[in-house]
Amino acid sequence: MNIENLTITEILKMVGAVSAIFGLLEGYVKIRSKENKIESAMRAILHDLLISKYRELIARDKTLIIDRQNWANLYQQYKALGGNGALEKLNEEVMKLPTEVVK
């Protein structure tokens, strides 16, 4: 393509296409930024909930199967959202607690 042979209409179409691409990229960046904020908020909520659950389970010195499953699920989601390992020791302690048999 020889740029010297382009008409004003063709140049305007190209500029419009480039502008549209930049608009899409800007929208994508805004969406990712919002998703990152939501992920950070969810990670903070899970962190707080896991600490509360930890205190409850350690105070009881045992867990029910459902408590252990709930803990494992919450912890797994926390880690999947990029949890930084601050709760690894707590997780180990909870998983070592004896399981209470419900009769």
Helix and strand topology:
Elements: H1 8-60, H2 65-80, H3 88-96
Written account of the structure:
Helix 1 packs antiparallel against helix 2 and helix 1 crosses helix 3. The protein has one domain. The protein is mostly helical and 103 residues long. The chain is rod-shaped, with a radius of gyration of 26 Å.
Short description:
The protein has helices at 8-60, 65-80, 88-96.
Q: Percent of residues in beta strands?
A: under 5%
Count the DSSP helices: 3
Helicity range: over 70%
Largest sheet: none
Distance between the termini: 81 Å
Describe this protein with a few key phrases.
103 residues, 3 helices, mainly alpha
